[in-house]
Amino acid sequence: MGLFLLNKRRLKHAFSSFILSCVVMSCANTQSYAISVEKRYILQNVNIVDVVTGDVKKAHQVYVEDGIIQQISASNIQKPRVQIIDAKGGFLLPGLIDMHVHAYDKSAFELALSHGVTHVRIMNGIPNHLHWKQQQKEGSWLASSLTVSTPIVHSRIEPPLSWTANNGEEARRLVQKAKALGYDLIKAYGSMDKASLSAMIDEANALNIPIAKHGPHPPTGLSWEALANMQSLEHVEDIYQGILGHSHDETLIPSAIEKVSQVGVPITPTLNIFWQLTKISEFKNAFVDSLPAGYISPFIAFYQKQNQVKRWLNSQDEMVAYNIKTLSFLKKITNQLALSNVPLLVGSDAGVLLSPHGLATINEMMLLQSAGLSNIEVIRAATINAANALALDSKLGVIDEGLQADFILLEDNPLQDLTTLNNVIAVSKEGKWLGKEQLLALRENARNNHNVFSEMWTLFSN
Q1: 356-391: pLDDT as tens digits
Q2: What is d(CA 229, CA 201) in angstroms, rounded to the nearest whole number?
Q3: Which residues are bridge partners to 309 per DSSP?
Q4: Residue 239: DSSP 8-state
Q5: How many C-beta neighbours within 10 Å does residue 18 have?
Q6: Cβ distance 159 to 129 under 8 Å?
Q7: Where is 173: in which H helix or E strand?
Q8: Could you give the CA distance from residue 150 to residue 243 in angstroms, rounded to a whole number?
Q9: Distance CA 86, CA 80 (A)
């Protein structure tokens, strides 16, 4: 967010009155959007993908009421005055969970839901995200549900939309602040020093709030064992850059994987974002112009095109070759993590480098497949593994009686053809059934109705 770094305070004071007035006018001219959804229904003739066993329960029925899967049966379910939905032999999969996204515009989470992503973990949270999460609990906003991290916590540097802990006492106070404000987890950046991160871990354990760390390795002087209670460790790119010191030597991968695997914490590879920068560097504006319109808010898109995207547009042939080689190497690291039984999570880094919400999640899954993971391993990374990491496995991640009715309907068997994720037929979000037409309506409304001034105010006021 370098856009706000140079003149943050001056910009905030200069534009706050202007933006606030524009927000008022924008909200006054924006109609609330709602779609009619079924909330009590029996889904008939459906094949259920069991992500635990990797099997398919053929020709079943699923009864949903009050947002919960009430009954699953291979026989007819009889209920009075209940909507009957014929799945026509489609395949039912738990809703996808994206464990690494960035967004400051509500439409991002509507877009994600329209592509079958029923839950996301926001990795640089602000108070607005907590407010939006509350709106979902109250039933006033239909979108992917949210797990919200704190603002990114650094040491020594103070970028906007972030927190800074320069010593153990400051780190402890930030953990207490996070707990008091209602954040779901703390996002610790790679810049955190030993003293600050160690104190943060101690306080977080005491207050029972998890930490996700940027970079799957400890800072200098801190043991690997200190990372054992993390919710997740982010980015295989940081295994390459940090543990392996930017070396492409494949013989060094096993020793790095051994260190990571001993910690026993899930890894979020985020291959998608390195794939995105590689494509921008290689194909320049032709790739940027091919990205679907409306998936990134205009304000963030403008900023990124002037900064992060511009950097990769200016890549020379040598950098393009390096990016292509490194992406291939990151896939090899990911493959070795899977072979070593390190739990993997789907995280797209959507919202960064114009990476489109919802679509980026599916692309991350395809990249995991191209890294050598089986279809069921990829699916588990986006469902049960993520639910386990979030401690939401009593609600999400599998399709079973008594669990939340978050699932997606696909035309073909994803265990055999993962590309069927590109054509989601229907989504159930907390029991609210959205068919194909409703998903398209939700998507188009989100793409065409970004509230630019509201997002500007959200960013500047934070």
Answers
A1: 999 999 999 999 999 999 999 999 999 999 999 999
A2: 8
A3: none
A4: I
A5: 12
A6: no
A7: helix 168-181
A8: 26
A9: 17
Q: Minimal CA–CA distance to 377: which of 420, 342, 423, 347?
A: 342
Cα separation, 309 vs 313, in Å, equals 6
CA distance 293 to 279: 17
Token pair for residue 461?
């006021």
Please give the Cα distance from 445 to 291 (Å, whole number).
Answer: 18
Q: Confidence band (pLDDT; 50, 70, 90) for 4?
A: very low
Structural domains of the chain ordered from first start: 95-396 (3.20.20.140)
Decide: residue 98, CB within 10 A, 0-12 exposed, 13-18 middle, 19+ buried. Answer: buried
Tell me if residue 328 falls in helix, strand or coil.
helix
Helix (H, G, I), strand (E, B) or coil at 342: coil
Chain centroid to CA 178: how far?
20
Angle at 6 between CA 154 and CA 316, to 5 degrees: 85
Report, in angstroms and rounded to the nearest whole number, the Rg of the chain calculated over CA atoms. 22
DSSP letters, 318-381, are HHHHHHHHHHHHHHHHHHHHHHTT--B-----BTSTTPPTTHHHHHHHHHHHHTT--HHHHHHH
Q: Are 410 and 91 in contact (CB under 8 A)?
A: yes
Structure tokens given for 269: 């590879």
Beta strands in 411-458 (DSSP E): 424-429, 432-434
Q: Which residue has the tokens 């739990």?
A: 343
Give every strand in the sheet of 152-154, ordered side by side: 162-164, 152-154, 186-188, 211-214, 232-234, 267-268
Q: What is the pLDDT of residues 244-281, one digit of tens each?
A: 999 999 999 999 999 999 999 999 999 999 999 999 99
In eight-state DSSP terms, residue 421 is G
Measure the CA–CA gap between 313 and 319, rounded to whole angstroms. Answer: 11
Here the tokens at position 386 are 């993520």
d(CA 413, CA 51): 12
The whole-model pTM stands at: 0.93
